[in-house]
Amino acid sequence: MGGRLDLGADGAAVIRCFDPRDLSDTGTVAVTPVADVPAVIARARAAQLLWQDQGLKRRKWAIADLHQAFLAAGEELVGLLAEEVGRPSGEAWTGEIVANHDLFGWWLSQIDDLLTAFPLDLNPVNYPRKRGRVQLDPVGVVGLVTPWNLPVAIPLRCLVPALLAGNAVVWKASEHTPRVSARLFEIIRATLPEGVVELVQGGGDQGAAVVGGAVDAVFFTGSVRTGRRIAAACAERFVPCSLELGGKDAAVVLHDAELERTVEGIVWAANGLAGQNCAAVERCYVDARIHDAFVDKVVARVEKLRPILDVGPLCNPAQLDIVKDHVADAVARGATVRTGGEAPGPGLFHQPTVLTGVTDDMKVMAEETFGPVLPIAPFDDLQDALRRVDGTPYGLTTSIWTRDLELGETLGTQLHCGVVTVNNHAFTGALPMGTWGGPKETGHGVTNSRFALYHLTRPRTVLVDALAMPHEMWWFPYNDALDRVGKGLIELQRKGGSKLPGARAALSGFINRWKD
Ligand code: NAD
Predict the structure, then answer these.
(1) Distance, CA 146 to ligand 1 centroid (Å)?
(2) Measured from the CB, is residue 149 less than 6 Å from ligand 1?
(3) Which one, out of 302, 329, 360, 364, has a CA that is 20 to 30 A from the CA of 75?
(4) CA pair distance 82, 92, nearest whole angstrom
């Protein structure tokens, strides 16, 4: 596995790291003592005030520098991703480096517009000589807790907009990817002012200390189980949290689908990241008319996938055990392994596996597998298939595969999920301008897009009053005259009165005389 909590020779907690491809030792990383976490958060808080005061222009310069430093370290990060999570290099380059290049570029080009305050459109008759705006302020210190499956991309999807918006971030990285996280942090620390980003290394205890500490918002990506705990901890402190949790994505293949593309796309989406993708295709419903031909082609394509070069290992033994358990459960209940199955050690590999004869009550169809396993089920009735798609507690993404693009769009948007793709799957998580997240147990967060700023900023209304008169209409005293003014105002405004020349002056004069 990528990392394991243990004690070092001096008795201090460490994470023991090794390469999941062959279990070779790759060193240790020090764990942040839980007792140190409050001081880490305090450092971030002190740095945040200065960072916010720098203003957006200077923050953009700093993040542009970070962008360049990140790109310059691309090769090194790809190497670490191979050692720590067994990621094939092509996958690391596209998913973790190229996609993040786009992420930096998009936020840097959009942030001025996205953070521009918008004016209050005040009715000048009711609210004379006042102006106002809604501005987006940073929330302060964001607690960021991340998983191991995309250990560069997932943190950056929060860090880049959070920092541009003027926040500091205390980042608790996954205990399974401490080396790649440490390297990313070094790059950040070399570019940004001290304390603006702080790294906490360790497991659940460290995560809980960050979430339960004096942070102003929490941004979490990980399992439903942990997400539930984090939501409860945040509720205790009334701290807002964004939760990007699990998935059990389905692909629905209609009878008119472009078969070659559909097979290639679904085989990639089921086996990319060795299936350890929250948006991996974990269920495939295929029109019965093309089911057999589709399965044959999928099996033939899967059998051409190359270990290490195309499909890496699972990240940790516990994850490998879940995958084996789901396949065993399916087989015990009557499913057929069309290709794949367990792989010989010493690495944490599982062969890309295709199952048929599956039913929706099997673990492999109902629970998150997070491994290179593709169960395929035929359907006769399309509406019934869509009901089955919606039948799990998750709602991250769904794809519809058809030549009828309009139908695909119509069917997709009937589903209860956060992302719908027609003739593609999963890659939209890498689009910084699109939303990422979903309903039900997938959580209630939004990563990427302008909507991510809802979690990373706090709207503030600012109103400035230049009215020199001693009274406002709604101030004391309350009397019959005020009732008449209220009624008169409504009469006037129903006739378009706020636009009548002189209406404002006449009303102000009246109010002043009456209040005097
Ligand atoms: P996990 O929930 O086990 O761990 C995630 C992080 O939470 C780790 O850093 C861990 O140390 C920390 N943590 C554990 N207990 C904690 C606690 N009590 N308080 C605070 N932090 C705690 O998840 P994982 O196994 O690392 O990641 C896999 C899961 O992540 C899958 O379920 C996958 O679907 C999900 N995921 C979701 C998305 C998405 O965008 N929806 C993306 C990637 C991964």
Answers:
(1) 6
(2) yes
(3) 302
(4) 8
